[in-house]
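Appendix B.2, paired examples.
Example (i):
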Amino acid sequence: MDSMELKYGCNPNQKPARVFTETGNLPITILSGNAGYINLLDALNAWQLVSSLDQALGLPSAASFKHVSPAGSAVSLPLSDAERTMYFVPKDRILSPLATAYTRARGADRMSSFGDFVSLSRECDLSTAQCIKAEVSDGVIAPGYTEEALALLKAKRNGSYTVLKIDASYVPPELETRTVFGITFEQERNTVLLDASALKPIVTNNTVLPESSVIDMVVALNSLKYTQSNSVCYAKNGQTIGVGAGQQSRIHCTRLAGDKADLWHLRQSERVLSLPFLPKLSRNDKDNAIEQYLSDDPETSLFEAETWKRFFTSCPEVFTLEEKKEYLKSVSGVSLASDAFFPFRDNIDRAKRSGVQYIVQPGGSVRDDLVIEACNQYSMVMVCNSIRLFHH
């Protein structure tokens, strides 16, 4: 048995707390800081996500986790100029492939990523460590660190930043257990491989899946595998752009994730990219300002009582609801994955509003025919692969 004592459990009153293995050694090593109970839940789920993504697509992968669900996950596709600006990447900065994946994962939902736990599928290099250092975060897990990257991360938060090394060769037992209320549950670990082979059969009239959408759907599926259910994920450009997690209703997942995806697209509008921020405004304050600026009622959230003066050198022009709706009409090529079947076509109608053209879900609803009909009306491509991805 190998054991590691923790500061406390989910809450400070839950003591003692530890993690341990029944046989063999723990596959994690603390290189800096002090990992907590929730930190390790995030780290181990996030590591499984990025390692499975790297295996499925052969690309460096990263994830930003909060409360045992991904705020964002991504692979290392190149950033557009608009994405570099919205992710606060200076034009002259050269990012490594892994740093690009991290930047996408962190930028997917910057409000939710505040105080996250980071996971990287490959050795952390200096470029990635520099990106992590600039953000508010609780810790990082990776299979290794270059000497320069580790030194930089050890200095973060005056040495209290948690840096974990994971043994990439570690394979957990086939059966996994958990204890709830003194009762132990046991099940086979979910080892289903979610690569391009999981994107069949296509059940719609439109059967054309571009390579870009294949990547996005694989990213979305692997993200759902480690997201608290019910869950729906929107993806674009090799990253999640909206995750709806832990909702009791499928349509609420679709709406929540869709609203986040809409914000991701609106952040790339010229109206947002040209906001006149105060010179010394922090990244987090910029995120808060943008969130308020893009709220459904900006007249009361940002402009009332001249709140804008906290963020901007001059009062920005209001981005009206009608203007935002018009901007979002140009959005297309978005992929969506669901961890279980759609019971009604309202999910498809909501997805269409956020530019979804490609969908993957298990199928199996008594109303599958109506859901497929809705996709055909919108000329969407939909896969029903019979793979349910509940995660609790």
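Example (ii):
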Amino acid sequence: MKVRVYIADTPAEAWHIRNVLEQHNIVAHLRNETLFGATGEIPVLESLPEVWVAPGDAAEAEALIKQNRRQPEPSANWRCEQCGESIEGVFAVCWRCGAPAAEP
């Protein structure tokens, strides 16, 4: 017997979650991955890929999925030491002069 721990938006997302779980020694199985192409012909909720695990692994799997799906903390904006340009925190290199961000 298996329990569903995740419903993905795409087959690629389902495979990613499966791979994350298997890296933590949780055997995961995908269901409905081939039905995704039939979306529209069959109801959407019946065609979304699902990730299933053994009941004893469900709590750990759900915790890993939650951790994996968490949005990263936004990085603080920084000022380039070379040219003085203000750079958004998601960038590690100045868009104007190409200088790398200073180490924190």
